[in-house]
Amino acid sequence: MKRATLISMGFMAALSSAAIAATPVQNNNITESEVEAAQKAWGAALIQISKDYAANGHESASALANQVLDQAYGYSHGPVLFKPTLASGEKTFRVTQEGALSYFVGGNDYYGDGGFALKPWETYDFENAAVYINGDLALTMGHVILTDSAGDTTTVDKTWAFKKDEQGTLRIVLHHSSLPYSE
Amino acid sequence: MKRATLISMGFMAALSSAAIAATPVQNNNITESEVEAAQKAWGAALIQISKDYAANGHESASALANQVLDQAYGYSHGPVLFKPTLASGEKTFRVTQEGALSYFVGGNDYYGDGGFALKPWETYDFENAAVYINGDLALTMGHVILTDSAGDTTTVDKTWAFKKDEQGTLRIVLHHSSLPYSE
Amino acid sequence: MKRATLISMGFMAALSSAAIAATPVQNNNITESEVEAAQKAWGAALIQISKDYAANGHESASALANQVLDQAYGYSHGPVLFKPTLASGEKTFRVTQEGALSYFVGGNDYYGDGGFALKPWETYDFENAAVYINGDLALTMGHVILTDSAGDTTTVDKTWAFKKDEQGTLRIVLHHSSLPYSE
Amino acid sequence: MKRATLISMGFMAALSSAAIAATPVQNNNITESEVEAAQKAWGAALIQISKDYAANGHESASALANQVLDQAYGYSHGPVLFKPTLASGEKTFRVTQEGALSYFVGGNDYYGDGGFALKPWETYDFENAAVYINGDLALTMGHVILTDSAGDTTTVDKTWAFKKDEQGTLRIVLHHSSLPYSE
């Protein structure tokens, strides 16, 4: 193994200077703080659509909602497993962006939604019951609490799956929302 | 590069015989058929617990339910994100096995559940709206349809996340079940 | 639970027709056959660069090599862990595309490579010793056998890691190649 | 949506107290610091085997090496993609634990290895050229520098893939080691 032992001082010096420079690290995983940020962003976007509707009308709010879906959901990558709170029957699941857009801002004859994001939402909060992180995918489950302009509070049971894409953006690939069970 | 070019015929022969033997492949991923099998197994287990309760009483059914939770859920690995259909209030989320067991067979003073698996379930079916597979984790969303001994049908909106463990067993790490929305 | 049991026949019919349409499935995992195809493509690209050099000269071969690196390696996503067969000293690791390009076609004063892909390669084969698949990442290890126009054979010990990107393309994110050990 | 808005103050209080307790988080991902610790542990184990051999003989060192393989490699989970530094020909790849054990401590007629870990190793260091983290799998590439009791230094080009198992232990599932190329 003579070759290997004949390492010149120059080579060792090169190693040392290389050690000073930071080692490049590519990490594709989701972190807890990224999950929390994405959860906060979801609520902020909902309220923003609501306020945009009040200020600028349906067309503006609808364009904004579509932009939010483009950026925060995974529809451009494939189907999204989305069960909105108030959807039912054969329109329960919104695996396409068209179905999701209808749920948030209505205006779609087939789905017949009223537009959940058009309600006068004021504040948003969430309480995670548990979080599960597996590579570039994170699962959350907990309560989401929305308050409207009249001070009425709506709490829903909410499950999300976030996928971190190649640009580092977390995208919702699963969203199951339901009203609390009452006997 | 003389070393490399001096490959003896014996070595090439060894390569050829190695090629005849199958290359060892370790594949940690979930397949669609594994997901379907796990979904079928969930319903079969529910009905088995129900029938065991009718035939052998609560103690037997409770032991069976605990065994099902041991084998089909991920509680031994960490928290499970479980929102059962009929759970609500501060008892909505059952991140521990104790909470899940109570939901299925009752008998727990704190949770006060009636025992969902003790109802006289006869048949089970599911309809996936979409499936999302990411490594050793698979997400499903769709309807689950249960029929009881009186012929009454219960349909729920159901989301599952299955994690394939090191033994190749799919374990439920997320389970969100809710009644269909009705105005 | 009266709501849930009052499912109209129309709804069940909708479920049935939905079942006829294929369930959308998003599967981000790598398959064995995708790995084999990527391994074959690597060799085909190497030979193509070699033949392009012979036919059209260095500029053409260099452009082609750059295109291959763009498409088959992960440099556009981050650092690639690349240890080429004949690289050594402080130039052993080529974590940037510039370093990789130099290795394949030379023409870079800093690296001083002769250009591995410019040799007159004729045929390519590989023998996997084992394959390891973990989500969207696959690892392979085995022999790669190259034959040149003089009929001389070069065998190297080769390790690859392939990452499946969002477009479904397998990209090399790790490549360790070494000459067989000889005493 | 009257149900949802009729949330009692008691329920909100329950949410608040739940928020005080830490949310359970299951995170299956590898961290950079875990990777570094595993890389350090590999060298420490090599030196420990070497010193055990000097102090207690071959049987003791062999038992220790087997224990290290049990704990730090993934052989109990499936094949390991292992190309040791000094292995060649049809014995290049050691996908079974038997082949790996032979490489480190010899004593195996088929493989005929001298026993790499039996050399009088004194110190160990590593320099990562780059690290790639993807879920529960991490890839490293760089130099490993070993010094023996005579002060001679051996540098090798080293690639590892570590898989985090269900107990949180990082296991080597790929290990490609080669002597630096010299013309």
UniProtKB/TrEMBL annotation, chains A, B, C, D:
Record-given protein name: Phosphoribosyl-AMP cyclohydrolase
Record bears the keyword Transmembrane: no
Keywords on record: Hydrolase, Signal
Stretch forming the signal peptide: 1-21
DNA damage listed as a keyword: no
UniProt cross-references to InterPro entries, sorted A to Z: MICAH-like, NTF2-like_dom_sf
Organism domain of life: Bacteria
SUPFAM superfamilies (alphabetical): NTF2-like
GO molecular function: hydrolase activity
Organism: Aliidiomarina iranensis
